[in-house]
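Interim report to the steering committee. The following record documents the input for Pentatricopeptide repeat-containing protein (492 residues).
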Amino acid sequence: MMILKRQCASRGLRLSSTSFLHSSSVAIQEEKEDDDAETVYRMMINTQGGELKEALSSSGIHLSKDLIDRVLKRARFSHANPLQALEFYRYAADSRRGGFYHSSFSLDTMLYILGRNRKFDQIWEVLIDAKRKDRSLITPRTIQVVLGRVAKLCSVRQTVESFWKFKRLVPHFFFDDDTSACFNALLRTLCQEKTMTDARNVYHSLKHQFHPDLHTFNILLSGWRSSEEAEAFFQEMTKEKGLKPDVVTYNSLIDVFCKAREMDKAYKLIDKMREEDVTPDVITYTTIIGGLGLIGQPDKAREVLKEMKEYGCYPDVPAYNAAIRNYCIARRLGDADMLVDEMVKKGFSPNPTTYNLFFRVLSLSNDLGRSWELYKRMLGNGCFPNTQSCMFLIKMFKRHEKVDMALRLWEDMVVKGFGSYSLVSDVLLDLLCDLARVDEAEKCLLEMVDKGHRPSNVSFKRIKLLMELANKHDELNNLKQKMAVFSTEIQP
């Protein structure tokens, strides 16, 4: 498999000595900033209370906005303890003078971390503080971040209530050009986290209080499942409201046609786009490629990649992934490999989605050997697995009872910082408990807790029982003490 081959680090580029020195300097600076971010992140997850302030103060590391952004980004993607992240966030602002406050990125990231962990009271505390110090940091994106977390965990009614709460907090958004943006943020959230029916019901109940624009209709158009209903909505938008569709509008309707396997309608709509001087983009063609895969025509989809160039539109990684997915679904891995080869020659690097297409097929065929080889090559090519990759692998390791492979994956996650500890640990700890590997289970659980991740009740109860049977009472008490950092206690 081409994707199993290690990609050459050198692209054969020739740089002048000046460019090389400049690039080296930038690379060194980037490396230092990453090292500082990792150091601060480790302080954050390994200290409690006043210890964090003391550690950061004595470290001598300057907490710039960029560094704070990097640390909070690590906290988000490593699923760090939200209260520890919040303590760092607050200290980072309080330790500076001269009216310093966070960037919008840090604010939104902190709100995401809190929302994911149901810390809604703290969300509003942070927002009120942000408004007091610099209200410009609260943007329509901030609204969408918060509403997205609320919608994912709460009801539609509670999501709309949070929307109105934002209106009271930042009323200036609702009396200027951001009015539509805020309304659109609510609708997009409901489309993503609830159902299109919910989004349309809220739209009809609130549309007279706001000013729906083309973006509003694009959001609502993207979620239709029935092509007939989508076409009717398109007509309402263009005929009744007098809005002129853009490439996003057409792409949304083409997506509906492709998912409904109505490719003739999709092709006719592309012709209509050209007639109206709306140029199809890479998303248009990627959608067509996906639709052709749904009707079992991967070779025709492959031709679309070539046809794109004739219209001055060049494939990107998602476009290649869509074509590769078609061959993987058809179990034609050789053809999929050829596309990966072409993709690399064009200067694109396979991403976790690319690898997951192969992992899925190998998982369905229960091919442990090739999956393990693919994993090793993935790391060798400098591509870290995402959570989906890890889940494909850990489930296969459990089926085959390959403890060594499972522990190697876990070690890589701990050292390199990828994947979801919560999801992977449930399967890993289940495997270790099934085989009565109490020492390894205890070690993995401790590593998880030390990184600020709360294990599930089921995992903890199983390990607790094994430790009691093994008379590891002191070790169990140590584990319980370490877990005291979590705001919600594990049930005995």
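Residues 425-492 form one domain. The committee is asked to note this result when reviewing the revised timeline.
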